[in-house]
Amino acid sequence: MPTVSIDKEKCKGCGLCVHACPKKVLALMEQELNSKGYHPAAPVRQEDCIGCAVCGLFCPDVAITVTR
Question: I want to staple 66 with a disulfide (CB 3.0 to 4.6 A). Which of 6, 16, 42, 53 is the partner?
Fold first, then answer.
């Protein structure tokens, strides 16, 4: 099963990965802030991940790793 990992400290909460994911695996964590004051993205439906890694391609901060 593929796994999505996000480095919350690198994430600036732009939401590009959230919109790029075809399975809607990711979401911005509205109730959480990283040390820079951004709402980071996080996998909320990990079980639906197909391992396409489109989220990682769209991430301008290189904060996402997809392991297959």
Answer: 53
Domain map (residue ranges) of the chain = 3-67
- Write down the architecture of domain 3-67 according to CATH: 2-Layer Sandwich (3.30)
**DSSP code at position 57:** H
> String of b and e for 43-66 (b: at least 16 CB within 10 Å)?
beeeeebeebbbbbebbebebbeb
